[in-house]
Amino acid sequence: xxxxxxxLLASLAGLGIWYVQLSQPAEPTAVRLQGSLPPQISLTPTxxxxxxxxxxxxxxNIDAIGDFTLPATKTITFCGAGRNLHxxxxxxxxxxxxxxxxxxxxxxxxxxxxxxxMPPQNWHxxxxxxxxxxxxxxxxxxxxxGLDWARNSEQARDMLYQNPPGARSNNRNTLYQASMELRGxxxxxxxxxxxxxxxxxxxxxxxxxxxxxxxxxxxEQANLYTFMMKTLKENVSQKTEIGSIAPVPxxxxxxxxxxxxxxxxxxxxxxxxxxxxSSKQRGMPDAIVGKxxxxxxxxxxxxxxxxxxxxxxSASHTGDGDRHWLASLLAxxxxxxxxxxxxxxxxxxxxxxxxxxxxxxxxxEHPAPPAIAEGMGIFYWFTGAYGVLFWxxxxxxxxDQPSHTDSAQKGLGNDRNxxxxxxxLHGLWRLFRHHGDLFNGRETYLNEATECxxxxxxxxxxxxxxxxxxxNLPFVRAIxxxxxxxxxxxxxxxxxxxxxxxxxxxxxxxxxxxxxxTLKGDEISLGRATMNRRVRQQG
Length: 539
Prior knowledge:
Elements: E1 3-11, E2 14-22, E3 31-32, E4 44-45, E5 75-79, E6 101-103, E7 132-137, H1 138-145, H2 175-180, E8 203-207, H3 218-234, E9 241-244, H4 267-270, H5 293-296, E10 299-300, H6 308-311, H7 325-339, E11 343-348, H8 370-379, E12 387-391, H9 419-435, E13 444-445, E14 451-453, E15 459-462, H10 465-470, E16 475-481, E17 484-490, E18 499-506, E19 513-520, E20 525-530
Parallel strand pairs: 5-6, 5-12, 6-7, 7-8, 8-9, 10-11, 11-12
Antiparallel strand pairs: 1-2, 3-15, 4-20, 13-16, 14-15, 14-18, 16-17, 17-20, 18-19
Helix pairs in contact: 7-8, 8-9
């Protein structure tokens, strides 16, 4: 179904009529069951760890769950809070709690990284290259290299790409210099290749956040982003992956509206570089002409930080524009995976981001409720995503501090309750400790093709995240690998005494699998089954 909007524009010179078509995704067609229901197979429920969530401020118990590691096909970078709580006892603990790399600011000086001058001869980091990650914020470009463009994209038309050939001055305030100098990062790990320098981080994440710009400045902005990514790629190891929080193919900002499913790629994602009236004089090489940011990025970063309404069970969550934690988590991936084949890594933060536009969202003092934190650690991976950057605006934690008397500091940092970390890790533990074998590169992610019945098996539908949200239905997602099916389900925002039922089937590739799920409250249901092959009728 399509909705058409007519806009009339009048001017002093006359009347102009503009037709603007706003597309909506097609309504799914219900498939009616023919005959009686086949025999059903019950899921084997995934175990839950038994732990008492911490009530201490500025603290979380990383031992709420046991050891597990991620499959080689997935990655989680730790840039969260409180590594200092356990690092003295066991520096390797994060790597046995699902994390695969540590961001530079969370590394141990002198052991994992050396930043105080040149390291001693033959010193080497205790971290393998795959365990290292770096975030570059806008201050890296603006403060260290005087590139004010990082804070104000309107200055793109004045930015120097590099010093022109034959120039007498060796100006360091160029985008080339800022991007090239990252190659020296290998010195901090003691593993520069002989006679050369190449950055040896496994992941470099850009968080410049200057992508928005005026219409007339777009070409300059696209040129700079393309040049920056190309230069970065030339100065890192072959195993280093680079991406940015923006641009992404489409940013829904967590709204999960129906119209986002028919959106095209945002302009900065794949706008080809072109010489402008002044770009060549400022050092833009012809080598990037026709190339785009997307050509050089190794991964995209669609995702959303939550606002307080996502955590508020009393708020409205079923309108097309309403906030809904699970709809936004899934929809960002459903939309962007169709717009680009690039691997996806989302930023995960377990507190609400600051926004004065929403009540109770001015500060990041609200932790994700238990089901939401656990669900983030489970449902996200059902989208086929590659990784997560686990982030926090606080670094070290000091537990049990007196509450701040300054209202501006209340609820921040050490005043926060970090039990949400325990619930998030619990979600990861349930998924990867018990089902890591399914993530071997041969799995199929059904996403919105997960087929469900909400009327006892009489009709079967495939809904995207927005359609589940606006119909107030249980969310179900499945992964299939051979004859194994793994299903995650929840009725988001239900109360503890509420129950709901939903049926799930998989009747493709020769399988004939049916099951019924009974969901309790807004708990995260996770279960697995071995599917039977469809029996062929003789005759």
